[in-house]
Amino acid sequence: MINCIGIRKETKDKTQKRVPLSPEQVADLRTAHGLRVLVQSMPQRVFSDEDYSAAGAELTDDLSESNVVFGVKEIQPDLMLDGMAYVFFSHTIKAQPYNMAMLRHILDRRITLIDYELIKDEEGRRLVFFGNYAGYAGIIDSIWAMGRRLEAEGLITPFAHIRYATDYGLLADAETAFREAGESIRTDGLPEQMVPFVCGFTGYGNVSRGAQHLYDLLPVEEIRPDDLSAFYARGEFSNKVVYKVEFREADMFEPAQPGADFNLQEFYDHPERYRGRFETYLPYLTMMLNGIYWEPRYPRLVTIDAMQALWSAAEKPRLRVIGDVTCDIDGSVQLTVKETNSENPVFVYEPLGGAVIDGVVGEGPVILSVDKLPTELPREASAAFGASLSPLVPALAAADFTVPYEALDLPPALKRAVIAHAGKLTPDFAYLQSHIGG
Predict the structure, then answer these.
(1) pLDDT tens digits for range 116-156
(2) How far is it, in rounded angstroms, from Cα 241 to Cα 403?
(3) Does residue 121 sit in the same domain as residue 175?
(4) Do 297 and 271 fall into the same domain?
(5) 185 and 77 within one domain
(6) DSSP code string of 284-333
(7) Count of the separate structural domains present in the chain
(8) Are 189 and 239 in contact (CB under 8 A)?
């Protein structure tokens, strides 16, 4: 039904609390655009069913009258309606094997799939995202993990007072905790065994900016990647600051051809001409926060081989925690061998034996690989996400999804985000056909 939208309940993971649109945004869409909004009941949702009812939404399990249905995470095939248009994070564009059966079902049932990750402006900048909140939660949880790991080693630090992200009601509460930890570092310092404390941030997008926002509430001194070696050689460290390094593409990758210059556009177009160089920095880092976009065609940042070499050295490695916000299994950080959730968020990967041990104790770095980090700050993350999504909703609610893709009347940013329509992959995503068969 034109001008009727649905909001589905999240069914992939019981820890999922986020929503694509808040009750306040639903009320605005109804008032300003006359939209009818159907909402499936969901007890763990950060906003209650009653909140949506008060906003004028209709609570119902049946979303079949919707013109388009909004969700957050992937949808089990048996829960999809034939011929319906869905908008959610599908995690299919890298041909992720675990979602190819879902994509095959979408084609078989002539379902339209629109992916938030692909909604971008003409410059390729994402318009709808949770990225900042993934960064916020990622650094909170990584520092929490650091505090526990050091505690297990007998070192008590101000990081031990940072709680897990779900324990903070609002981002402001976490900011207060980081400021307090920072004041403790300024006053009392860190244990000498942890000096210098160096955190490396890969990338400079929404995830990295969110993570650095909180980290910068500590007493921070920044170091350029190429200055790390000289910084350690000088030995002029302070126990009353923490150090930060931001890595960009030219810092993490280099041309495979000796003597060639790094060219960013060439790297994007022909990553096979490049190799990773990030591992040369690993001996200097105490913690790593990984927030880059990665595909299998790009070189890895951290390989098992490099970590085996690091852990085989005579001196105990400095690296304690890898916060892999990117969370690509066997991806840019090869030690990310599984995704976790807030109920069991971290594990230790032991490079020398390949053991994977839940918790923070073991002969290797602690890996944080929570796949749904923004849901750990669900109220603010959902409100921010919905604010960016809301302006696009009326066009989706009014679209005629029964016409062929070529005739689909959507703004360019939305049309480019259509992966599948009427039983076919759209031209930009035809490459996925070889991964799903048929």
Answers:
(1) 999 999 988 899 988 799 999 999 999 999 999 999 999 99
(2) 60
(3) no
(4) yes
(5) no
(6) G-SEEEE-----TTSPPSB-HHHHHHHHHSSSPPS--EEEESS--TTSSB
(7) 2
(8) yes
Query: Residues 392, 340: one domain?
Result: no
Please indicate, yes or no, whether residues 93 and 182 belong to a single structural domain of this protein.
no
As given in the structure block, the two tokens for residue 16 are 């999922």
- My answer on whether 350 and 398 are in the same domain is no
The verdict on 363 and 300 lying in the same domain is yes
Series of mean pLDDT values for 10-residue runs along the chain (438 residues): 96 89 98 98 94 98 98 95 97 92 97 97 90 93 98 96 94 97 97 97 94 98 97 96 98 96 96 96 98 93 97 94 95 96 95 97 97 90 95 98 97 97 96 86
Give the range of the structural domain holding residue 84, as residue numbers without chain letter.
4-129+378-436
Which uninterrupted H or E stretch holds 269?
helix 264-269
User: 343-355, pLDDT tens digit by residue?
Assistant: 999 999 999 999 9
Return the closest-CA partner of residue 26 out of 57, 4, 65: 57
Q: Catalogue the E-assigned strands of 105-263.
A: 112-115, 198-202, 220-222, 242-247, 253-255
**Helix and strand numbers, DSSP H then E, in the chain:** 14, 18
